Amino acid sequence: MTTAPRGRGDAGHSMLTASLGLLIFLSFLLFAVQLLLNLFETSTVTVTAQEGARLVASSRVDHSDPTEMITAERHAEDKMRALLGPQGATARFDWSSTGDQVVLRVQLDTPRFTAPAFGGRLPYNHIDRTVRVRVEDLR
Q1: 47-73 burial, b for 16+ CB within 10 Å, e for fewer?
Q2: Which of 1, 16, 23, 41 is most exposed, with minimal Cβ within 10 Å?
Q3: Cβ-based neighbour number of residue 17 at 10 Å
Q4: Residue ranges of the chain with pLDDT lower than 70?
Q5: 7 Cβ partners below 8 Å, 6+ apart?
Q6: What spatial distance separates the first Cα and last Cα of the chain, rounded to whole Å?
């Protein structure tokens, strides 16, 4: 039984194909990890913003006194920064208040795990959440 002779140019092709396949697989894995961490961070920011706005909208705060409102906002910002962990240091909080609502806008950039060579900002790298909470009234 004779075997067909192998072509001379086939040596090493499987190694190149395997390396390319592994590189593509790891790229998809890195993208999936980045996306999952961003979804987690987005959920954390949303819940934290709701908690901070709820603290300011509490019935314990006199909403007619601007000084007390500023104090309540600063206290809520400190608590939110603690809840957000390292990302809280760079978070931006914008407060506004209507007669019966407290509005909080939270903005921050999420950590990035992709190589800087890809350049630019990823489309889901920035979180911007606005939360509205009704002011509590004791009746």
Answers
A1: ebbbbbbbbbbeeebebeeeeebeebb
A2: 1
A3: 10
A4: 1-13, 113-123, 139
A5: none
A6: 98
Q: Please, are residues 45 and 127 in contact by the beta-carbon 8 Å criterion?
A: yes
The predicted structure's pLDDT at residue 55: 92
Report the pLDDT value the prediction gives residue 50, as an integer from 0 to 100. Answer: 95
Asked whether the beta carbons of 92 and 103 are under 8 A apart, the reply is no
**Which parts of the chain are beta strand (E)?**
92-97, 101-109, 126-134
Residue 38, amino acid: N
State the pLDDT at residue 45.
Answer: 94
Residue 61 is predicted with a pLDDT of 84
Q: Is the separation of the CB atoms in 55 and 95 below 8 Å?
A: no
Token pair for 47: 């819940």
- Note the pLDDT of residue 117: 62
Q: Spell out the domain ranges in the chain.
A: 20-134
Kindly report whether the global pTM for this prediction surpasses the value 0.85: no
Looking at residue 95, its pLDDT comes to 94
Phi/psi at 91 (5° precision): -70, 145
